[in-house]
Design brief:
This is LytR/AlgR family response regulator transcription factor. This protein has eight helices and 15 strands. The chain is an alpha/beta fold.
């Protein structure tokens, strides 16, 4: 279901938008998570809610809608999960700048119900948000890391490192809980590591000079390591999990 936030400094404009959305409910199921009359109110709301789309006014006191959209675009470029933007404004002159900020659409007030429906049907977030993801908190921001982008999960001290091709995230969720939540996505290779099934390129003996894992091969034999697609890093395979990893590779 599409989840929205209405952002407009005029209470009457917010009420009218709610009425339009209510009329659209039979054709487009949705949920309004809240309203904001300023950028400050919006940021407070986004600290606890994760809407698919903002219906965003342009001209507001203080930080305007264009600045809000620019900030969201910059955050998206850093890998954060941010809502899509549909501008709703009485002015036409900001349209070019709006689309440069990756807006889904630009609606001129008074917004027509047919145009609103057309714009909302173009929002991809409703589908994207259904993809499985791991939620993490980073410097006060709530981020969703799509499971399909994860290469591996590795428990270290009290955190789990979530490794993608681009960067690492830290989660306080136990490794066992993540394994139970996504049983079809990961293969356990060690008591402290899960590897994404799509990321496993193969296994080979550890290179000479590599530090053996605590439960690696005994009697001077080199242990096995997993090779990853798109990553030079190698991960130790424990003796206990070696048979399972080999079985996965033969499947």
């Amino acid at each position: 279901m599409l989840e929205l936030v209405i952002v407009d400094d005029e209470a009457l404009a917010r009420m009218r938008m709610r009425n339009l959305l209510a009329d659209l409910a039979p054709e487009l199921p949705h949920r309004v998570l809240g309203e904001a009359g300023s950028a400050t109110e919006l940021r407070t709301l986004l600290s606890t809610q994760q809407p698919h789309v903002l219906l965003l006014d342009v001209q507001m006191p203080g930080e305007d809608g264009m600045h809000i959209a620019a900030d969201l675009k910059a955050r998206a470029a850093r890998g954060e999960q941010v809502p899509h933007v549909i501008f709703t404004t009485a002015f036409t002159e900001h349209a070019v700048g709006a689309f440069e900020l990756a807006a889904v659409d630009y609606l001129v007030k008074p917004v027509k119900i047919a145009r609103l429906l057309e714009a909302l049907r173009r929002v991809p977030a409703a589908q994207d948000s259904e993809l499985p993801s791991i939620t993490v908190v980073e410097r006060g921001r709530i981020l969703r890391v799509p499971v399909t982008e994860v290469l591996y999960l590795k428990a270290e001290m009290k955190y789990v490192t979530i490794r993608t091709r681009e960067r690492e995230f830290l989660s306080e969720e136990p490794l066992t809980a993540l394994e139970a939540a996504f049983p079809d996505h990961f293969v356990r290779i060690h008591r402290n590591a899960l590897v994404s099934r799509h990321a496993i390129a193969g296994i080979e003996r550890a290179r000479p000079g590599s530090l053996p894992s605590p439960d690696g091969e005994a009697d001077g034999e080199r242990s096995w390591q997993v090779l990853l697609h798109g990553c030079d890093e190698r991960l130790d395979v424990s003796r206990r999990q070696l048979a399972q990893v080999k079985e996965f590779l033969r499947a």
